[in-house]
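Researcher: Quick one. two chains, 983 residues in total.
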Amino acid sequence: MSAIAARAEAGNTPEIDEVDQVVVRFAGDSGDGIQLAGTQFSTTAVVVGNDIATFPDYPAEIRAPAGSLPGVSGYQIHLSSHDIRTPGDSPNVLVAMNPAALKTNLPALERGGIVIVNSDAFTPLNLQKAGYADNPLSGEALSSYRVIAVPISTLNFKGLERVELPKKQLDRCKNFFALGLVYWMFDRPLEPTLRWIQAKFRNDDPVGEANAQALREGYHYGETIEAPSMRMRVGAATFPPGVYRNITGNGALALGLVAASALSGKPLFYGTYPITPASDILHDLSRRKEYGVRVFQAEDEIAAIGAAIGAAYGGALAVTGTSGPGLALKSEAIGLAVMTELPLVILDVQRAGPSTGMPTKTEQSDLLQAIYGRNGESPVAVLAAATPSDCFDTALEACRLALELMTPVILLSDAYLGNAAEPWKLPELSSLRPITISHPRAGNGFLPYARDPETMARPWAIPGTPQLEHRIGGLEKADGSGQVSYDPHNHEHMVAVRAERIARISQRIAPAFVYGAAAGDVLIVSWGGTKGAVFTAVDQLRKQGLSVAAMHLRHLNPLPGNVGEVLGRFRHVLVAELNRGQLLMLLRARYLVGATGLNKVQGLPFRVSEIVDAVRELLGRGRRHLRKEEKHGAHEDRGTGAGSDSALDARRLRFGPRSALVPGM
Amino acid sequence: MRWCPGCDDYAILAQVQKTMPALGIPRENIVIVSGIGCSSRFPYYMATYGFHTIHGRAPAIATGLKIARPELSVWVVTGDGDGLSIGGNHLLHAMRRNVGLKILLFNNRVYGLTKGQFSPTSEVGKKTKSSPMGSIERPVNPVSFALAAEATFVARVAAVDQDLLGKILRRAAVHRGVAFVEILQNCPIFNDGTFDSLTDRRTKTDRTVLLEHGAPLIYGRQRDRGLALDGLDLRVTTATGDGATSRLLVHDEQAPSATLAFLLSRLEDPVAVGVFRAVESPTFEDGVLRQERSAAREGKQADLETLLYRGADTWKVE
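Model:
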């Protein structure tokens, strides 16, 4: 039980409690404006100085059937007065706009947590759609929680009676009423959201007026309710000095690309096709024409990368962005960029697959596709971003590698990182290193596949340069001259050259970072968006006195040079990833290490407790924890949806087989 | 990299090599982008910049190049399989966007490089290795396709008609916007003689009608036949005698509507050759540049500091 639940239970508290962190989840119909309310709440949180981590979790349908279980959209925010890395395992406060939102989100709420519901939405029809036989607000179903039932729809109408808008439109403001109430609860200023409304709507637009009024009404309603010990305050976190802004992963990717363009002096070309969850990068870059960004919304994924390859050939910083299904379509063209050794950055904001899968849900299951998913021996560099703000640094590095080494680079993000927001300490401009590029000038004896002795990069001769006219293409090249060649030995040589060009990148990149114990019992290996949960788990486990560390990999191909050595320093290696064990397979194959997998494919990020439990189980200390979980019914939220037996089955399934045959290091 | 002896591709190459130096475009500013297939080996025969890409994707790659470098003269060389089968989608969109590409589609009505299967332009009943009992597919008409995509310059010419090919290439080169040229090309190995009746000196004048802007549509060895409107279609009529002048259709390649050009593209006897359509319309790359200039004119700062520090609400921690 959290401090918040404990105090709420005690009932006897000062008017506003000081708490050091809280997790709030907004939930409602996908048309209820939940994402907007959540975004506003997080913006206000960063304005008052909290550290935050967010987790928007929404259905693929734009307007799913109202009141239905699959139509529920959620936005979880973790705010804290100290440094945090995850959106939190369990909400302390749930705002449920209808019965379906309550039904799907209640299992995640901590026992004793606070539930704010829109009681107007608990109609017989909505209850039936949510599968409630009885109204949970009237029975004992919610007795373990503190329920604040508010007729939000009615109060919202009443408060807006003087606004001249159709009733339907007024009803759409109820998310801001609820937001106002939550602002009251957490003693937040309304000004940041009022400013946003002002910027969004013209002064005389009644919709803006209605939203502002609904926000105020919700706040004032809080002051009238006779609910003691409802209010809490999360103080400002201590951040290192600097200038900050709030950023999502997709936003940071876009900024990183534009920054790379400025640092390289190359105009940015972004060829893409709309796809969830990567489209926000397209939207962001489309607004930046003053930076010379040329965005091309192509007819399909193949044309998107094709156009990017054409732009790269023409001398631009060329990028294409997509998600898993789009990466599959781009495979052949990536091979062309490998063969022609052109600089190209491919963004893959991963989502749950296979096929269309679950487009708005997160997963890390494109790793092997990124590294190997092409015909022929076709190596590319593969990087993965770890946090929303890290997307900026990773985008910069991907562009740097592509441009300086003349190679395609795949950057893996995921749906969770792409949509999640966190405060970002902006880099000092002087710390951003220029990206150095040289194009060959006119001259005799030009060889399109001559190589830099150190990087093995070929010259980037661009059309328009006199005397360097040459032909490139997908057919095998003779090294040096670039002439089409079917020579068997040349082919084997070129395959080796392409492999070596990528392998040498490991000499340029930072060694893998180890967090926690330098050596000891358990090393958790992770990559991509799971970093926050893994590092938080390491902190908790070390506090429990266990010898645990994490190695988080940004570079997946090639791997940093110290990986094998680090793996050897630990008794157990646990590879945590949101797939069926893809990095696990790579590490076991490459380093012959007896590693175990912690795998989850539910379209959801790891919860910290899942990683903590897995490590404890690995060390033979897991039973106690498991029993506790069953008692709390947490397995339901895991999506097993059944009793404790299947929870155990699910647990067993999540572990890859421990190898008895492969010797540990 | 060699085509088969006797291939019409050599005829096209000869004319392109003859035409290009006369265009006044520096060699280094010309890029030839091709896909996959016999036609797509074209760049290797040219001393310009060249990019032999992947099957069907040349229009997409060329589009990216043209957006990034609008000042370049970008040519796409493709074939009936490359451009109309695997790459049909890209060809459609390059044309409807009016990207300033010069697209030469070599139509030999067969897959040559894969050794003789029917193609999307093969006629019904065509017997090939993959259609031993005859193709049951209805063919696509490349010019109709281009007109339906509202390409702003559309032409058809036989490879061996060197004079007309040269004229059309020169016009395509200077056209602002997309230029689509279907080049009827004989494959001596897998589809020999497919266009003979249109190119043979003995039959050509009776089987083809040359489109000339502003001139009545007259053809035939004796110039005695012509084309007239018949309801919503065309019909062959006599070009001589009473009322012929008023009856005969006059070709207008600049007509804003592509309707007449489309009717002409459907003709099978005679087959129309020449320029079907040549209209002015804003190009895609001009639009890109216009918006870029407009964003710059709004006086928005565009440097790293603005990008990172001014683009959103920021706060300072001391």
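The first strand of chain A starts at residue 16 and ends at 19.
Researcher: Thanks, that's what I needed.
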